[in-house]
Specification:
CATH superfamily: SPOUT methyltransferase, trefoil knot domain
EC number: 2.1.1.177
CATH architecture: 3-Layer(aba) Sandwich
Strand content: 15-25%
Organism: Pelobium manganitolerans
Number of strands: 5
Number of helices: 5
CATH class: Alpha Beta
Subunit structure: Homodimer.
Protein name: Ribosomal RNA large subunit methyltransferase H
Largest sheet: 5 strands, parallel
Number of domains: 1
Function: Specifically methylates the pseudouridine at position 1915 (m3Psi1915) in 23S rRNA.
CATH topology: Alpha/beta knot
Length: 157
């Protein structure tokens, strides 16, 4: 299985990039992991929120394949403990999912077409974080999930 994180807009802060890269290096020992960045939309000043979400959805659909299993990271999604998240990843691997794709939307969330395409909505927290911070938190949680699955001493309960 390969995990792909697709996000709108680049990460500007060096400390976030450093953290993401730290966990990407660690993840190489467990699974194939890729981050795809969709460029921010240009000239959005005259677009409504719905128009912006629709244009972002078009870009997401270009980045995912019909056979990909898609999970949107959304504050209204289900919340899982780190242990339950590791169980979810394990079930996907056992179920022979080829590409497990996680999406981080733009500032207004996702277009309804993305929600309809998604298999799950997952929340990392009820709190709101910047889209850049979520990337770091997510990559760390994927790493944590694999250390849980391997019984390694990273996660403590």
């Amino acid at each position: 299985m390969k995990i792909i994180l697709i996000a709108i807009g680049k990460t500007d802060d060096d400390y976030i990039l450093e953290g993401i890269n730290k966990y990407l290096q660690r993840l190489k020992h467990y699974i194939k992991f890729e981050i795809k960045i969709i460029p921010d939309l240009k000239k959005t000043k005259h677009l409504s929120q719905d128009e912006q979400k629709s244009k972002e959805a078009e870009l997401f659909f270009k980045a995912i394949n019909p056979t990909d299993e898609v999970i949107v990271l959304d504050e209204r999604g289900i919340e899982l403990s780190s242990t339950h998240f590791s169980d979810l990843l394990n079930r996907k691997m056992i179920g022979s999912v080829q590409n497990l794709v996680f999406l981080i939307g733009g500032p207004y969330g996702f277009d309804n077409s993305i929600y309809q395409r998604a298999h799950y909505k997952l929340s990392l927290s009820r709190m709101t974080f910047s889209h850049q911070m979520i990337r770091l938190f997510f990559v760390e949680q994927v790493y944590r999930a694999f250390t849980i699955l391997k019984g390694e001493p990273y996660h403590h309960e």
